[in-house]
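Hi everyone,

Forwarding the result from last night's run.
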Amino acid sequence: MKQALPETTTGTIYALAAFILWGILPVYWKLLHAVPAGEILAHRIFWSAVFVTAVLLYIGRKNFHSLLRDRRNRISLVLTGTLIGVNWFTYIFAVHTDRIVEASMGYYINPLISILLGLIVLKERLNRLQWIALILALIGVLLITVQFGRIPWIALVLSITFGLYGLIKKIMNLDALSSLGIETLLLAPIAGSFIILQAVNGNGAFLITGYKIDILLIFSGAITALPLYWFAQGARRIPLSRIGFLQYLAPTLMLLIGIIAYREPFTSVHVMSFGLIWTALALYTISLIRSSKYIERRMRKK
């Protein structure tokens, strides 16, 4: 009889799988380079709705009505659906326009944006390390802005939309997978109408370009939902400090793919800017570990 893996080991495997898949997703979207970003987004939304609904029905989670019954939940889900739609489009656009490096920057600074939102919206207090981390990250973004004469808007849009998405989920205490199902279902009629309109006008790629493109578009729903489900399973089983550390795996893989596989430029300015952001993230991780240990000590005393 096989011995079951410890919960923390299972959680770590789930979290690793999620972050690795998120990190290599640029390769998937690159395979769809012939399809416009707007059409990919429409398929991603539509097939995500189909896939997530099927999964929720399979695992017996049918709390759609209870989530939608509350007016605050409905408003929140419309907001989160819009935010995740903007985030997905920006990410696909970044891959299509050979700006994976900038996209990776967005996911590196996302935890720091979350800290800033916590400070502004939730009135959370920051410790010294977190303040230093925020200032270093800001200097890193300003450095690349001044040197290249343009704001890294892709990085900022990705980090801010995902940060706001997480904030609303935290405030409303919404289940990740169920709420994603409703978000995509709310957007699915718009996405489906766009897909049909493109097909009628002869501009769509689906069922025209070839079966390989069709398969990739259909499975865009699965590769969107699966890592989110794995992440939720991992987050339930392992400490926040470990999640905080593992989450840097995704943007690191994205950065390496952008530089090595697709030969995107990574200049000395990038090195300095990313260096500041990486230092900020190291300080942030240390602060997470410290606070986690402090909470554990308090729990033991009780």
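The two ends are 38 Å apart (CA to CA).

Cheers,
N.
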